[in-house]
């Protein structure tokens, strides 16, 4: 394992270990503020670590993924308040519309960074990796009280099935967008991040409709 990989692996191991301790050991409202602090620390530490080991490509990846993560508040908000299939427990810290914890605005960066870094520019690989990585997230989130599926959805082991094809689409879209605008201007990266999150929002709604709503009957 090279020095750069060791450094970024250590950062992620530290982040996930600290997150596990915080979410299991603390109660609201301390839990929510601690999660927010960890998310901020990660998003400061990742680009600093990448610069320290000479990985400009990882810095560019973080610059793309941070706005993606911020825009991901919107689909989470829609699922929580419009579709009614996602719940964010009150754990402390700032919330949007009393529906979603604002720490989610930076929480998408770690899994997406892992997916895109491992995919090495391959959109199909990113789609497959996204399913695996986000499946782990969906399994763990209710255990540590970060979010949980709700409403009348098809679930296996506590995971709403409609999110998995949408998260595969997110991995594919993020890898495709980053390949196109990774080294472009800040404005173009933000627009590409918005397009990626919007694509994911549409994929969520379509997957939810296809799996949990549509009757698939034809009348003549």
Automatic annotation (TrEMBL):
Cite the DUF6989 domain residue spans from the record: 73-211
Q: Which InterPro entries match?
A: DUF6989
Q: Where are the transmembrane segments?
A: 7-26, 32-53, 60-79, 99-119, 126-147, 159-183, 190-211
For this UniProt record, give its keywords in alphabetical order, as a comma-separated list.
Answer: Membrane, Transmembrane, Transmembrane helix
Its protein name is DUF6989 domain-containing protein
What is the source species?
Paraconexibacter sp. AEG42_29
Specify the taxonomic lineage. Bacteria, Bacillati, Actinomycetota, Thermoleophilia, Solirubrobacterales
